[in-house]
From TrEMBL:
Membrane-spanning residues: 319-341
Keyword list, A-Z: Membrane, Transmembrane, Transmembrane helix
A Pfam family hit: zf-RVT
Protein name stated in the entry: Reverse transcriptase zinc-binding domain-containing protein
Cited InterPro entries: RVT-Znf (IPR026960)
Residue ranges of domain Reverse transcriptase zinc-binding in the record: 239-316
Species whose genome carries this gene: Trifolium subterraneum (Subterranean clover)
Amino acid sequence: MPAVVIKKIIRIQREFLWGGVKGGKKISWVSWKEVCRPRSEGGLGVRDVAKVNLSLLIKWRWRLLQSGYAFWKEVLVAKYGIMARFKVHWIGHALPNRVSLWWKDICGIDIREDGSWFARNMCRKLGNGNSTRFWLDRWIGSLPLSDQFPRLFSLSLNQQGMVREFRDVRGGEDGWVMRWRRRLFVWEEELLQRLQDLLPVDVPWSEAEDRWSWRLEEDGSFSVSSMYWYLGSVFSQASSFNAQELWVFGKIWKSPVPSKVIAFTWKLLRNRIPTRCNLASRGIQLIGGLDCVHCVGREESGTHLFMFCDFAGQIWNAIFRWLGLVLVIPPNFFLLFECFTGAAANKKIRKGYALIWHTTIWMLWKSRNDIMFSNGVIDVEKVIDDIKLLSWRWGLSRHSIPVCLFYEWCWDPGLCLQR
Ligand SMILES: [Zn+2]
């Protein structure tokens, strides 16, 4: 796929995610690279089309290497030579002048991206041992033997030989036999011993032809998804979040609340919601300055609005009391999530607590917007009641809390969750 098409598709995806299709240009709050990370790494798990495209191209490589007749393979062999069917490692391969774009893409995967990640994950599985080169194909260990033992390879009299040719059967006993250009020195004998230790004592020969095996799947067959995730690990830098934070990112998606609510807390954890501070830092002029809607003289940052503002503090403390928890508001949202769910005695209760954690954050945001845009008034009691009602509704509608009456939920949610 041409790079310009990939770019266009990503633009459409981005506009869809950040809601800019009809409403003009919107702020992309999180970089596309981060959005494409798996959820357990703090992303949204959106597929990166460039990597999907590469994975699909690599599938052609895999199919070419499979035995069996296919007309399209014959056409390629006629056009580009027999190597088209047997080459695994294409780095440094010079392309003929006139090639189709598709073939250029397929050959260019390694050349362009400076990686032999296809070859790296391919390995020969022995059948009769007649089509796997002893030194040059990778069939034991993580590299071809010529790379693992370059000295011995240079001395071998049979550099192109197949595995079966190295297996000598005399008097019914199997053994590995290698022939050398000259007698080995002592230190080379030591290398040979290491090689002998690596080689299998018994080879379960079969009548079947040797075949390629894909190391990223248990059954050895290539899959586009395994390639995709592998490419993700190759091309993405390590996440800027620590292990504890990533643990929280992995957990939030399992909460029984609407996905828009989880997406909101996801943005909040990344400090990417449109608080006044965040809008100002993106160069947006605000009427009324940076002040929090609940208190004068304090800037509206994410941590202030949702944790350290008096208003938020009152709400959280009321929620803690409602759940019977003795907690002090910790310094950040990750810890708050951990304290909150960590206080639950078992899995059922933990799920309920995660539901309430999300609902509380959602209602804090909603009440802020009501005050800012709809002339709402500050009413702590009402927000707390709304959190109880909304969490009860979401929990029941998703069948994720046991059936209970609303007054029971208000009275003791822990008891309801344990049913
Ligand atoms: Zn405030």
